[in-house]
Fold this protein.
Amino acid sequence: MSGNRIRQHPILPVVERRQISFYWNTQPFQAAEGEMIATALFANGIKVFGHHHKDGSALGIFCANGQCAKCTVIANGKPVKSCMTPVKENMIVESVEGLPELPETEEEPVLHDIEEIAVDVLIIGGGPAGLSAGLQLAKYGIKAILVDDKNELGGKLVLQTHKFFGSVADSYAGTRGNDIGKLLAEEVRNCPEIETWTNSTAIYVFHDKKVGILKDGEYKIVKPGLILNTAGAREKFLRFPGNTLGGIYGAGAFQTLVNRDLVRPTERLFIIGGGNVGLIAGYHALQAGIEVVGLVEAMPVCGGYQVHADKLQRLGVPIYTSHTIISANGVEEVESITIAQINHKFEVIKGTEKSFTCDTVLIAVGLEPVSEFTQAAEKAGIAVFSAGDASEIAEASSAMFNGKITGVKIARFLGADAPEIPAAWYEKANILKSHPGEVLKPEYINNREGVMPIVHCRQEIPCNPCSTICPTNSIHLQEDPIMGIPYFEGKCVGCGKCVTICPGLAITLVDYRKDTEMPIVTLPYEVGNYAIEKGDKIAAVDIKGKNLGMMEVVQVLKQLATKTQLIKIKAPQDIARLIAGIRIQDEAVTAPLAEPIMPDKTPDDAMVCLCERVTAGEIRALIRQGITDMNQIKAITRAGMGPCGAKTCDSLVKQVMREEGVAADKVIANTKRPAYVEVPLGVYAGIEGGSDE
């Protein structure tokens, strides 16, 4: 198998799977049985899946979630999304070059009766919100069908290897996201009231109050009494010169390849966006043995949790706040990136440009709710609820708790004997979705005897595992039992449980009991592919990644249950409390090129519509002619008419309108097509496998 397979991971088990053969443009390759075509191609070093018929630019992946069409290939003569189509034995996969002619078929279509199923509740989306709501519905005896377009329940939880924040009691705080996904999925599968359909895509909510669903390739119609939309969110794209190069994709696609499929899609990564999604993706990259060259964030501070940003900086990843991407550079694939500092008006400050060698640019600039199911159900007159990111973008811990609340709401709406939702639930829900607070300066205890935890978390975020697990109840949260900043007051026995469970890896332990001059500092460590052993000299750093010197490792404890290693080092007493982590990435990895590479294109040359290759300049010219009707823009340029159905370009066109001073209430919305995903027309007629017609 290819060298792009991840053979060792500090958190995830690596299981050997049966190998099967397939063909890529007549060349034979090997794939793991059951994996998606896109994954198999990346595993074999193939990142460009074809070329666009308009400009010949590279096509590959962006979302790996079925939302766009960049990864389209021809599989056994049919166009498919390679990120959603499993590779099969001896499958013939071909690139899309220009406008391919598909083979004629002389086979008589096999017709099936289209099954129509009535159910109390249809849950669209098997992520944290849908699973949590389903458990509540089952508790009150309400029948539901839960559909998800992946082959595994859990949604984005499946991709998360880090420990979760939030409340231990209500959202599994301190447990890794992928483990939470398995726990919730198993609970739902054990509920006879909930029928789960994986590999099932909701296509449309029709005006006759029915929903078309493609289940394992077979079309079915569901007539629900009520719809719960928990379909999650889709990633936003970004305009910049070079944004059509191969090697530019979203954080969700990256995490899918790395954490679900155990494929290393890149050698050198640069991240755009300092929210939790971008920060966590950087951490996941390091766990997969990928070099993270840097991260840019347009705002003066990262929007994600400070402990996530600190964690990256300690490991050796520079974060450039008040910076933006100027261009991605390369011939067909990304070869480098150019960034620059911006002022408070988001204008580029000339002379601050820097370029870095990288092969992938990761876009993590926000999410937008998949709200179309809610809107269509409302138009059709079907009772509809939403939860999770489909309702409001927040953390998965919030999605779980809000899914629970919504499940009880639905039960009450349907007349079940469910109690009224306590006010405390709503208060907790607001806490779990709250934005991080102000970052305070570190405060360190001056005591230099005994043993004690040093808390490096200096920002209010919803998180309480450290205070929950302390056996002597000596870690407390200021003011709020979930949201407060943790502090130590009491007696520490040196068990290290707080160090192990902290999701932000923001607690260390300093032990003066044996040596007050050279105490032992215990550090959490989860990047085990960068091996650290007893006797090694490691670069100890403070909370922001500042080098404090080389320290000797005296012990390494490997926690099998939590998969967090505890690295014990000896350190001088005057800096022991300042040590917060270990630098693993060499500074040479993150060094800029001697001279910046300036783009030969302007920002208006950046693509807004990837499907139809429409530039920002073309959109801007129409707006300046007075056109603010998205449908008219679509008719003139075809922006929004491509296979993704305007999922990517809609927000980018509106962004250009804002730049041109067009008020939001003056924009006439794009009329969406009557199907959320592309399916062969034959599907609606009950033809097996659809139709090429």
In short: Residues 396-413 form the longest helix (18 residues). DSSP finds 16 helices and 36 strands in the chain. The domain at 608-693 is CATH 1.10.10.1100 (Arc Repressor Mutant, subunit A). The chain has four domains: 19-101+237-363, 115-233+369-432, 451-590, 608-693.
